[in-house]
Fold each of these.
Amino acid sequence: MQRYPFLLAPVLLLAACSSQRTSVMLDPALLPLIPSDTISLGGIRFDAFQKTETWKRLAASPQWTERMDEFTKEVGFDPRKDLMEVLWASDGKESLFFVRNRFSQMNIEPLVRREGYQRLAYKGYPLLGDEEYAALFMNASTAVVGRTARLRKIIDNRDAGPGSLSKELLAKAETIPAGAHLWMVATPSALPKFESDRAGTSNMLANLPRLLNGVQYLTVALDMAKGVDAQAVAYCVDDQCAKQWQNTIKGLAGIARITLPEAQRAQMLPLLDSVEVQLNGTTTTTKFKLDLAALEQLQSTFSGAGSRRPN
């Protein structure tokens, strides 16, 4: 039975900000809970995302509706109605997911009845899960999902007083545009390892670990207001590393045109054609855009491919 992964489904699928802000706002209710050894942060601003035309279009698709219905039945709450914000934090070894949700308006009892789940408690704080993974409920609107031992440390640290995040990490978070609905600022050690069984891309991907050694931080920001408006920035240690990143991104885009199956390549062309890579000293910025029509077509293509099963 899957336990922890299904709690993260909305994050893998895919905090309102003042109009005067120029960068994404870290939720003040979540910030004191983030461990001081965090080296990477990311977030999805569901409240703002759900108000966009992109969300409305995606949510109307049969595939999206089916997946959200299954998730709601499995977990006991509907992310289309209840979820406000998810913040991801990693120390390079373990990840925590901080969730702002309307827990007071939902019924979590179905989770308790699941095999292996139980109500736990630590220093007066309720946890729901088992001794491996759990959800820690800080209050009626805030929960933290992760390894149970790590959650208990959060409570211990909270009692000892809030820690402080790296100033450099927070400074890079301040560069994320305020309009970003999905965002991330990460050090390379917290990123997933890249693998490929395609001959055309394996050589490029094989060079990424070496390139990452020269990258101090990566930031990603996706504005989903009318499709996808994406920006990724690599902060490198020197000009040579930045230039290598520029060449790698351009190379991957070029190889994708050759190695993708014909049907998928046709649908990917609007994205590939929009890729821009800008070099500015030790910084490499990659941008791409997809309008709503192209995004819907891309979603339909890959959803259809993923839904086909062998006879």
Amino acid sequence: MKSALKYFEEICQTIDKEGLTKNEKVITSPQGAKVHLADGRTVINMCANNYLGLGNNPEIIETAKKSYDEFGYGLSSVRFICGTQSVHKKLEKKLSEFLRTDDSILYSSCFDANGGLFETLLTDQDAVISDELNHASIIDGIRLCKAKKFRYKNNDMQDLRAKLEEAKDARIKLIATDGVFSMDGIVANLKEICDLADEYDALVMVDDSHSSGFMGATGSGTAEHCGVEGRVDVITGTFGKALGGASGGFTSGRKEIINLLRQRSRPYLFSNTLAPAVASGSIKVLDIIQNDLSIREKLFENTRLFAEKIKEIGLDVLDNGTPIIPVMLYDEHKAVEMAKRMMDKGVYVVAFSYPVVPRGKARIRTQMSAALEKEDILYIVECFKQVKEEMGI
């Protein structure tokens, strides 16, 4: 026991010596365009997944508060025993209408949604073909299933075709991809993915965690954005990012798939029900998104402004037209130092390094929010310019 603990301690010490410790900063305020830190500073937030700025929306908060009187604090149960309330069914129905799918099922997180998907649907007679840059939750979910596993190069349709050809004798073939890739902001080529799926009689699964609520004309996600609504078989996502920023996840899609998940998906069967306050708040989130497209429009106005201005100062950025705009430093220590200096100037950004991104691909991932104003964005760009000059980049 002691030798094991010593080994774990040495690993953490090595990480610290490399300057790559992922420290947690304590926030003492609600999530928003600006947040208060435990050390007394107020900083502009450029690293949250609060894309639509709904994390501290008064209407959502009031809805959640009212739900406590009607539905209580929690259910102390799983869905199939005595953990299903009318609010959960209402959210599933509303979510399906928003995504334009047959049915939806709720999970405690999208990590659980992905963790409970693949082993439920696939056996050793089947094959899963996964994009190399898929989120860790997809990777871990795939590890749990017995299907043959193939990995194709990021958004590379020729490589996807080659892998589908290798898997052509499998009973079920499932292509798995992020809708928007969380580290680079790249949009999956869903049109060609769906075309290949049709050609090889495969299913398509999309994780829309970084897409739901703002991608597409009405914000329903990458299927709408790419013009393939009705052709994606499974959509997973979260209420913890653009859709209110609280917690909880979902799987939505073909009724046959959702029905099977209700019977066999282990994280659904063996995890407590989504808190009723979160379910109620999420219904209000969908109401707001469907009735006020101006929030989405402001998000993309902010995105275009920041991308344009940050490129003007000569930083190497990945601009794929999404609110995820990584500032590429490549060197882990430079990324950490830039993040520190930006924080000193009142801009909250975080350095990302291995194993979150590949070695040599260190960056500061900036994330735009509809909560930010133009003057906030211009100030952030000015700070990046100053730090760039200070560091001689």
Amino acid sequence: MSEHLTKTGARNVFYGGSAFFFAIFVGLTAHSHYYMRTTSTNETTLTDSVARGKHVWEKNACINCHTLLGEGAYFAPELGNVWTRLGGDEDVEGTRETFKAWMQAQPTGIEGRRQMPQFNLTDQELNDLADFLRWTNTIKTQKWPPNDAG
């Protein structure tokens, strides 16, 4: 038996290893998609209002300052659990009204604080954005964010 790897042997190791790790990659990708569809979110709770709220989120580039489930800029607070912080599902309408009042009061003008701009959202857009943030609050995030403050 030869102590050196021949060109044919090296080629076989390369192609065999590549095929093996590609198969593992495909399997892990499929598992991730399966997990996301069956465990982390509930697609039955996706409504037109949630979709419109996501559009409001994207149109106003909220992710340029805020994070949502860890994705985005770290300039302003995490909003993945803002629904819980404002009151949660125990008082849905109260939480919605608190959120809307807070959004409409921006900028607060408090000296020394970073200011959120006033986006002049309509009542419908505020309700849709609240529904979107309420829906993101229900995603199983494996304990993210790590604290309630966001």
Amino acid sequence: MKALIATEKPFAKEAVDGMNDIFATAGIAVALLEKYTDVQALYDAVADADALIVRSDKVSREVIAAARQLKIVVRAGAGYDNLDLAACTARGITAMNTPGQNANAVAELAVGLMIYAARNSFCPGTGSELKGKKLGVHACGHVGRLVATLAQGFGMEVYAFDPFVPASAITNAGLRVCASVEELYATCRYVSLHIPATEQTKKSIGRRLLSAMPQGGCLINTARKEIIHEDELEAVLRERPDMKYMTDVAPANHAILQASFGARYFATPKKIGAETAEANINAGLAAASQTVRFLTAGDTTFKVN
């Protein structure tokens, strides 16, 4: 059997070395494709692979078609919208992610963006403290729960909304439960987004929710750009000079927002939520371990299709 690690943006050397060790122990050959600039290189490399591990690389219908004997593809990270799940399912290929491996890195960034916003983007002038402020966590997965824990350490009052998590689990974590997404936004000065980009969530964060936020409202997005209704976000920022938007996924209207709203808007130059050495290593090792367990024991834990 053969596993292909295909990454336009490579894993850290420590991660690759660890992945190679995991596969070698299991008797599985490994091929490494890094920094490729032509998708044809991926088509060629995946042709005889039984397993494929990627980061943010697109595993399209065309990639699946080129992978004649592929059995599993693993996205080293939580989000998996770069995988064509329908194409995988049609071919009987198992698709997985590695939930939780990047969670701490993303959570720390979300809190960092809150501090940056509270302190006027580190510009001269009087800022504010996070202590005593209300934070709404929109979705209580791995990242959302860690953001809540970190925020509690700052003395914030943390609220949460997640229709897929039992209310008891939220209250047991010391959080206040909001009965609706509308209540979350109307209650909290800060809202941190941790929802995936699905047909139901795309463009779901717009005027209706943002306009309801209290004075000094600040939206933090370390999830996906697609969940924001960008035109409505721009309109609310124009209508409400007290509002702020901080993100590590720059919107299509980034240049307009940057020119129009100064320190009230900030986007990192690229998506950096998972860009820590620790997250890179954790996700790579988890992807390799999951691949081995699937190929050798049929373990489908973390299957997403």
